[in-house]
């Protein structure tokens, strides 16, 4: 509400006089108050927070935040300037993640020798289900598969005959 002072003034002297002088001349007293800001005020409207982004551990939830007019219609954001905008993101906590670690193994390589005992190797790595690598200690609940083994253990034909001739 806006308020103003209204007086009856003598036009010749510009002095303030009793209201009866103005009413005697048929003048009606103007209103001393009037309404202002009659248009509906803008405000923020928020939607519900969505599901947590994580299935376990910490994640985030988001929601829509709109500036709306007095009838609930979406209006440009600058109309809500000066108002505190509600958060559209918050953290959420799910139950602790159960990390599953195990050894992943590759196939053995070819044998280093065709006879006379060679070796072959393979990669043995401690990993989680997303294939992130961890130190072997983290997979200590399992026995580590061997990464190297002997192969082609049969003697080479030339080595046998030399051995027999040398005897």
From TrEMBL:
GO BP annotations listed: extracellular matrix organization; proteolysis
Coiled-coil residues: none
Main location: secreted
Subcellular location: Secreted
SUPFAM superfamilies: TSP-1 type 1 repeat (SSF82895)
Gene Ontology CC, one term: extracellular region
UniProtKB keywords: Repeat, Secreted, Signal
A Pfam family this chain is assigned to: TSP1_ADAMTS
GO molecular function: metalloendopeptidase activity
Protein name, entry field: Uncharacterized protein
Species: Cyprinus carpio
